[in-house]
Every structure is written in structure tokens, then in C-alpha cells.
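Design a sequence for this backbone.
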């Protein structure tokens, strides 16, 4: 499997070659949020957020949502689409596996990053989740 670095992902977004983008939030996430209105509305990070559909679902449910993506064009699209939807969320360019978090999160939501990384990086992924979560935080995948 080739190493899929930031340049690779940026080129895909620049070319609008995003077959993984289904135009809506993960149905499982939408169902989870609808089924759990009792959740305390805290902070959530969506690593590998792409254009931000899942970030917007969290924000629409009242969470302080932050999307992180290695492709600057994805981050820009996320910001634009979130503003157009009248929602507030934060989008940050960065490498979830290597970067330090801007702060610790109550939630990390995984939908597509784990399957997009080189299998050799999966241990780094687990370490990153632990680095980004507050002690006792929640991981939802």
C-alpha cells in the first residue's frame, strides 16, 4: 500500500476527486446523536474530517465541534460549508497522528481516518486518540 501523505489528500481535494464524500453526515452518527439527547454537550474532535459533514452534525446537536484534516483544501471547504449552514464549528489543518491537540476533548469521533491510514500507522493512531482525549473521555467509531 502506498503511503498516503498530506500531498496526496490535498491533490484529491484540489481535483474534487472525493468519492468517499457522500454529501451528508454518517448515518450511524446521526442516529446516535438522535438516540442520546441526554449527553452532556462538550467538546468533540473529528480527525480526518474532510469537508465536515460529521463536524456539522455534532455542532448541530450542540457540541463544541472541531474538525482536523491533513488537507488544507478540506479544511477550507469545511469552514465554508459550515458557515453556509449557519453553524459554528472549528476546522484546523493538521496531522492528527503527529500533532499536539489544541486542547483535550471529551469526545473523539472516528468515521474514516482509521481506514485511510497505512496499517503500519495504526499504533500511532491509538496513541493519538489517547493524546487528544481528556482522561475518562469518550471514543465513538
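Sequence:
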Amino acid at each position: 500500500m502506498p503511503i498516503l501523505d498530506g500531498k496526496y489528500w490535498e491533490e484529491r481535494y484540489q481535483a474534487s476527486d472525493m468519492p468517499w464524500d457522500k454529501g451528508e453526515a454518517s448515518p450511524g452518527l446521526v442516529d446516535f446523536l438522535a438516540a442520546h439527547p441526554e449527553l452532556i454537550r462538550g467538546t468533540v474532535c473529528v480527525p480526518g474530517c474532510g469537508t465536515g459533514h460529521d463536524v456539522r452534525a455534532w455542532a448541530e446537536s450542540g457540541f463544541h465541534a472541531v474538525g482536523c484534516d491533513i488537507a488544507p483544501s478540506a479544511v477550507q471547504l469545511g469552514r465554508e460549508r459550515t458557515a453556509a449552514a449557519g453553524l459554528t464549528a472549528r476546522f484546523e489543518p493538521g496531522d492528527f497522528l503527529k500533532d499536539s491537540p489544541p486542547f483535550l476533548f471529551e469526545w473523539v469521533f472516528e468515521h474514516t481516518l482509521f481506514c485511510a491510514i497505512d496499517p503500519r500507522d495504526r499504533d500511532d493512531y491509538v496513541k493519538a486518540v489517547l493524546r487528544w482525549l481528556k482522561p475518562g473521555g469518550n471514543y465513538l467509531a
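The chain is about 40% helix and 20% strand.
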